[in-house]
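SAMPLE LOG
Freezer: B-3
Tube label: C17
Construct: single chain, 82 aa
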Amino acid sequence: MKLLIRNLDRLTTEEELKGLFQEFGSVQSCTLVIDRDSGKSKGFAFIEMPKSGEAKSAIKNLNNKTIGSNKIRVKKAEDKNA
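STRUCTURE (predicted):
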């Protein structure tokens, strides 16, 4: 299941994010979206978790959790084709 994580602290790294989600299960991929011009985080990322039960647990436990100085939002990513 692909998850969208929004409102990330701009200093959050892919490694930190991956570690956070690995507490709830296996993480297939972690992609922090980076601004091409500045090279800095845009404040959101995508996490892919192969098992939907683990992904749902991560959503339930991490949505509205404060990471760094921000309260993150975690939800299932919408399909691009929708």
